[in-house]
Amino acid sequence: MVKLDQHTVEQYTQLVIYALNGQNKGKFRELFLELHPTDQVELFSGFDEVQKALVVEYLTPEEFAEIFQGMESEDQKEVVRELEDGYASEMLSNMYTDDLVSFLGELEEQEAKDIIEQLDIEDAKEINEILNYEPDSAGSIMTTEYISICTSDTASKVMERLREQEPEAETIYYLYVVNQVEELVGVLSLRDLLFARLDQKIEDIMSTRIVSVNVKTDQEEVAKLIKKYDFLAIPVVKDDGKLVGIVTVDDVMDIIEEEVAEDFGEITATKGSSDVNISSFQAAKMRAPWILILMFLGLVTAGIIGQFEDTLATIVLLAAFIPMIMGSAGNTGTQALAVMVRSIAIGQVNRSTVRQLIRREFGTGIILGIICAIALLVIIPVAYFTYDAKFMLAFIVAFSLLCTLSIATMIGAIIPILINKLKIDPAVASGPFITTLNDIIGLLIYFYIATMFLEYL
């Protein structure tokens, strides 16, 4: 593998392109195949149509599978449609199962079926079985390219088998031990195998303290387990204990990225519409339901202001502080929401910590409210020096903000916990929803306090 630093990468790239443009197949293969697969994907993506056709011509389907696996789904769709059926079929057969399943999941149902029909019978059966698992489950993201060994095998026999099967396996750092009926009974690290005596049996050196997941386990739970134990892979078993696949750490990284993007979409009420490949109409269609809901909630805000029009008519200056009250309530509520959703996502929220977290957020809200209130008690009398009851006005606004921020943080903290209890993704307690709800509560508090002290203004 060539090591490229900042000074040689551009020069090396030019050599690869020069060999390709000169149709020097031997030199191109020598240079290109020395690159890391990630660099190969990057280079291939920058080629024009003629150059891409030459790359496909010069590489075997097995070699091209390495590049194809690293592409974005939209690029994969475009490339696979340009390939000859025979080449495409062989190339897809050389992909790791989880990567192939992920690609097929991005296609239209009929298109995916057509591709599966071109695969070997055994491969097609395997792919169909994985596709039948629930989306976002361990079964749907696992790969079947792993190495399993028997308890009665010797260390020397396993080493010999590794030399034969290593190119086919996605990882060999863990070897999974099964019994005669394919039940998972142990695990052996490559390190333990290397230090074992050649005649030593696997059952004598394997570990029986196995951490595994069921095919039905949610992918987020799989990611948490791999992170917790610092695994490179985790075995996947059926209800009867039979080993059927593994989930590797690279898949977990994709899962985390996917979950973060999903949660961000939920919190900002833009779920699905952040994809750069969708049209303006599709993005608007996805966002419209939230916008309409929030618009009707906004009418509630307008109704509250209407209920206190006598208060506003008496002291018009009260209206000047409405945006500040609403904005501060929305901001603190969204901050509390973000903190709580993250705590839930990383497993910090449980029966013993939930009260502590809520109490902490409430205390945070009170402290923020006191800080803002003190600032307003100083700023408002100075800014509105011409107003007779300026100190009472400052007190009303400051006290309202103190109460509002305290309650807003509580709402931002409690709602995602309640939603999580209902087995719903807490991220659906989106920022815009929390913001609007806190706007309504903030206005009620503000006008109620202002009405109480109206006679002093």
TrEMBL record:
PROSITE patterns: CBS. The keyword Chaperone does not apply. Gene3D superfamilies: CBS-domain, MgtE N-terminal domain-like, SLC41 divalent cation transporters, integral membrane domain. It is a multi-pass membrane protein. Residues 142-205, 206-262 form the CBS domain. Pfam families: CBS (PF00571), MgtE (PF01769), MgtE_N (PF03448). Coiled coil: none annotated. InterPro entries: CBS_dom, CBS_dom_sf, Mg_transptr_MgtE_intracell_dom, MgtE_N_sf, MgtE_transporter, SLC41_membr_dom, SLC41_membr_dom_sf. One of its GO terms (cellular component) is plasma membrane. Its main location: membrane. GO terms for molecular function: magnesium ion transmembrane transporter activity; metal ion binding. The chain crosses the membrane at residues 288-308, 314-341, 362-385, 391-419, 431-454. Acts as a magnesium transporter. Homodimer. This is Magnesium transporter MgtE.
